[in-house]
Amino acid sequence: MKIDTESTRKAIRDFEINSAESLEQFRLTFISRKGKVAELFSKMGTIAADERAEAGKVLNELKNEAQARFDEAKQKLEASVTSVRTATDDITLQPPVRPVGSFHPLTLTLEEIKKVFFRLGFSIAEGPEIEDDFHNFTSLNFPPEHPARDMQDTFYIHKDENSIDNDLLLRTHTSPVQIRKMLEQRPPIRSIMPGRVYRNESVTYKSYFLFHQVEALYVDKNVNFAELKETLVMLAEMVFNRKVKYRLRPSFFPFTEPSLEMDIWWEQPGKEGRWLEILGAGMVHPNVLRSVDIDPEVYSGFALGMGVERMASLRYGIEDIRIFYDNDIRFLEQFQ
Ligand code: DAH
User: Fold this and answer.
1) From ligand 1's centre to the CA of 43, what distance in Å?
2) How far is the C-alpha of 258 from the C-alpha of 237, rounded, in Å?
3) Are residues 256 and 197 in the same domain?
4) Which numbered atom of ligand 1 lies nearest the CA of 197?
5) Do residues 236 and 248 make contact, with C-beta atoms less than 8 angstroms apart?
6) For burial by CB atoms within 10 Å, which of 21, 34, 200, 249 has the most?
7) Mutational pocket test of ligand 1: of 304, 306, 308, 309, the residue with most ligand atoms within 8 Å of the beta carbon
């Protein structure tokens, strides 16, 4: 049997190469391992032994011809790309814009909160998300029977039948980082503590089992309530980027005395105005200072804690907390 190379040779000569795509097409059709030439080579076995040498020579010539055509066309194409601009090029055109990602609304809000406190000379402190009972509750003046410890509110990693001292849990707030900070550094202390917190809550439009808080702690000699108030107002005005109407309502937290909650007046077009709670705060309870060996007769402090999701929802008019965690691109790209 003979191998017919003529039709392939003709096809190689006639193939039109005028672009990178057609060059690649040429390579695939003739030169590649699955191309025409390779296919012809694979028929060598069917050829009578005494004709094989001749057939091999013809096939090799064909292969070289295809390669030569490829090399020449490639060189030509490359030369035309790097050649001087033609008259139709408009050098004033903007280069194509590459799409870039955007920051998550929680990140944007946290950045705004950080800015306020950096201005006031606060630095950032962090602590673990897995805490023990001492840091999350006891040192913060929660009595042993406090309902926050209840299984319904707290995710326990380890629950000891005999002693709460051995309990391990997912922190329910960022306040334990206050304790860690005060154990590590003597006053003056000015720190904010951003981070994730966890609560055993069902998932609804307004609650989630995970969210973010920012805690702030200032401990020094003579820290007073007026400074707390000043800080809260500055915080609210910077985060919401306007003068705010606010009220400080007496409240209760085990770790502060007195304690307060801050509301701001919220008005939206077409809706009735209302008070919305934005954070909790207070003067650090003497028992908390004692638990970390700071003398409450010498030092005082204020603390505050806020939810980042809450702040972000108000800033951007978001009504369903779940959307923060969906990573739906249609939501995220609105924060470019
Ligand atoms: N830890 C509180 C919570 O999880 C928030 C809080 C309130 C923090 C008052 C504070 C504070 O530091 O002073 O709801």
Assistant:
1) 82
2) 23
3) yes
4) 4
5) no
6) 200
7) 304
pTM above 0.90, yes or no: no
Q: List pLDDT tens digits, range 181-209.
A: 999 999 999 999 999 999 999 999 999 99
How confident is the model over 290-310, as a mean pLDDT? Answer: 97
Residue 171 CA from chain centroid, whole number: 21
What CATH number has the domain bearing residue 328?
3.30.930.10
Domain of residue 40: give its range: 6-88
Task: Indicate whether residue 176 lines ligand 1 (CB < 6 A).
Answer: no
Residue 168 backbone dihedrals phi, psi, to 5 degrees? -125, 140
Rounded CA separation 135/176 (Å): 5
User: Is the CB of 324 within 6 Å of ligand 1?
Assistant: no
Amino acid at 194: P
* Predicted confidence (pLDDT) per residue in 117-129, tens digit: 999 999 999 999 9
Predicted local confidence at residue 2, as pLDDT: 72
